[in-house]
Each structure stands twice: as structure tokens, then as C-alpha cells.
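Q: Can I see a sequence and its folded structure?
A: Here is a first one.
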Amino acid sequence: MDAVFDRRDESIAIADVAEREGVAFQGLWLTAPREVLLHRVAQRRGDVSDATGDVLLSQIERAVTPADWVLIAADASVEEVCAEAQGALA
């Protein structure tokens, strides 16, 4: 599942869905400096996301990192981020 889940009720709900369906769930919370995130959003072209810089800033302000999700520094290389995510899910 790829989504923001920036509100506590949303992160709880997705974990509840997994439990109800009898599948394992481990949330991954990707984080990066605000400037990096804003740059990435500004560089999007032909992306399905409707996020703008303003949307991103709003998400950052209200975000509550779920305590039981694994934090991953997403300002590393794609390979490093993927390796860390795979390790968390192993």
C-alpha cells in the first residue's frame, strides 16, 4: 500500500485491515528534509499524485509518525532506501 497515512486514525486503520485479512503488516515511514521533499514534488511530471508544494507542507505540519512503523531516511539513494525497506520487511 502506497499512501500518506499522515493521521493516526489512518495508520491504525491500515494495520487493522491487515489484521482482519490475516496478513502481516509493517508500516514504513519515509522521511527526508523538507527542502528535499519540496524539490522532488516540484520536479514531478506526468505523475499520478495530485500533491503540490502546498499539499506537502500541509501534510508535514499535520503528520504524526506512528510509533510502531520503521523510519527510513528517504534522502539516501534509491538502492539504499530499497535495501533498508527490504531489511525491515524481512
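Q: Show me another, different protein.
A: A second, unrelated one:
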Amino acid sequence: AGSALEIYAHVPSDWSQRQYISDAISEEKLIAHALPLTQESFDALEKRNGETKDGIRLVTVMDHAQAQKWKFGEQSIDEALENPHVQAFLGGGEQAEAYLEVHQKVHGNKIYVWHSNDLGNVPVARPLVLFSGYLYSYFSFFNGRRVPGVRRASVSEPVRAGGAPRKNISIENLIEDVNLSDKVKDYIQRNYK
């Protein structure tokens, strides 16, 4: 066994499918609030390290011990732009710059970057979830949290893992979603419209 790895992935896989997530929750298979991955799924992601599409880095692999040395917690937008974790979870390059530019306009010059250091013996996935108007990857799937999937307009049409076209999700679609609480809808309207 080699070094422990962290993989940041912006690609569909078996673990990112609605039924897999639902089954993991209902069958109480979550590990420290994360989805268990098969070693096969983890290895497949590792092999895709460095893959890009439409200017977005889809998969980034990092050595866990090295990753722990970077700054976490509150940091300036400039610091965040240099942070490899931020680059990885925002898709790198122009994608990260564009996100941080909007974040700065909406929330100011500070951003909070949290990182889990709870590796176990089983690979796990921590999809981003929308809760109370914030994106988290370290909370569980309780109390109406949603796994969002919003794309940039410049990216080619989204497709499901099986290749079927996916409905284009927009801020307007999120606001109209009957399953979101009024509190979340109000937050989205206030901060993202």
C-alpha cells in the first residue's frame, strides 16, 4: 500500500448517482458522514488524474500528508487562489478565478476552507451538499440537504453517467424547486440572483 491519497473529482461515477446515495443513507453505510467507495471506483478516479474538459480540471490527486500542510480556515481570496485544495475543488485555472471573483463580490475578501483529516481504511466520497445556502462536503445528508449540479454556460451540455441528456439547472430552477425550504430559496435569491 502506498501513501494515502485525496482525489477531487468533477465527474459522474457510481457513487455520485442518486440511488447509490439514497441506498447508502437508508442502509446506514455512511462512514463519518461520507459515502463509502469501492476500491475499484477509487482506483478508476486515480487513473484519471489531470484529466480536463472545457478548461476545467476534472480530477486532481493529492498526497494526503502533503495536503495537510496547506492553510485551512479563514483566508483571503488571494491566499485561496494559491491553495491547491481550492484549485482542485473549483476545477482549477479560470474556473477557480471566476468562482472566487463572484465569491468576493458577494461575501467579501475572505473565504473559509475546511478540510477533513479523518482517513480510515475504506475510500470515501464527500459530495458537495447545499444546506442553509452554503456548500459543504463534511456534513451528512440530513435535514433536507441537497446535492447540487449546476454547470457554467460555456461548458458543453451536461449528461448523466449513462450518457442521457441532463436537464440544465439554473438559479431560477433551484428557486422554483418545491423540495427546497423557503429559507434556502430566500438565501439563493438574495445572494445569487
